[in-house]
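Hi both,

Apologies for the delay on this - the queue was longer than expected. I finally got the zinc ion-bound model through. Below you'll find the protein sequence and the ligand SMILES exactly as submitted, and right after that the structure tokens for the full complex including the ligand.
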Amino acid sequence: MSPVAHFIGSWLVAVATTNNVRDRRLVTLAGVLPDLDGLGMVVDVAKSLSSGHEMNFHYYQKFHHVWLHGWPGALLAAIVLACFAQQRWRVALGCLVTFHLHLLCDLLGSRGPSPADLWPICYGEPLFRHPVWFWKGQWKLDSWQNLSVFIVIFVVALWVAIKQGYSFVEVFSQRADAVVVGVLRKWTSRFLAPKVRDG
Ligand SMILES: [Zn+2]
């Protein structure tokens, strides 16, 4: 699934499991962190630009879905992020949940363009080579299934924002979040307020 879908889905879990903005940020972060192992692509691009050769995805393919898509990465992320939390045990558990939700979503919907481009989940990596899981029916990254899931969680996230008074924008800035929530509430009050009849 796309990093944006991972982000919003993780924030929804954070809203349900924590009670302050700092902890929500940490639990959300754990749900997007696994894709940091895809940053090898930056090295690939830099190498291609500096050498003038056509880009190969050597580092991206070598590390992506290997370094941070298994239980060792999940454990490390939960321990490190919990150190910064207000409610440490709660955040550690929340981080394990969002991290694994990320893995589950990748298992379901991160296939490449051809049916053979399945992304496996190497759950023991980088410490152990096993177990390795994959699903033959894996959805394409840009499939209608992924898009549908994204639309559903996006609408739920907007609804939560209007109801609770904070949105996923709070992960970046609480000031910007206040503006976004203000606009959302204004729109909904305009559309949902009962019409006053004249006379
Ligand atoms: Zn991933």
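Main takeaway for now: Residues 34-35, 69, 102, 106 surround zinc ion (CB under 6 Å).

I'll put the files on the shared drive as well.

H.
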